[in-house]
């Protein structure tokens, strides 16, 4: 469900798009698709999969959050 939210939103800094606040797996999927750097590794793929699974109820939103954070670290993005 698109209204699922994380307990603690993440602010991510993108070079071209500026800072974005990511509130849950739906927002994370939008960032992964629209703003992510061109180099996309295994953690990016895992984050995308985990966010989709969270929206489908197959994973928790907090599991998706952890995978998104790992992908942001892999991409060397600024996270607050």
Automatic annotation (TrEMBL):
It holds the Pfam family DUF982. It comes from the Bacteria. Gene3D superfamilies: 6.10.250.730. This is DUF982 domain-containing protein. It comes from Rhizobium mesosinicum.
């Amino acid at each position: 469900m698109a209204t699922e939210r994380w307990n603690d939103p993440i602010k991510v800094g993108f070079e071209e798009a500026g800072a974005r606040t990511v509130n849950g797996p739906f927002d994370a999927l939008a960032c992964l698709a629209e703003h992510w750097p061109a180099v996309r590794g295994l953690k990016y793929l895992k984050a995308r999969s985990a966010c989709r699974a969270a929206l489908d109820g197959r994973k928790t939103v907090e599991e998706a959050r952890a995978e998104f954070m790992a992908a942001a670290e892999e991409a060397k993005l600024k996270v607050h």
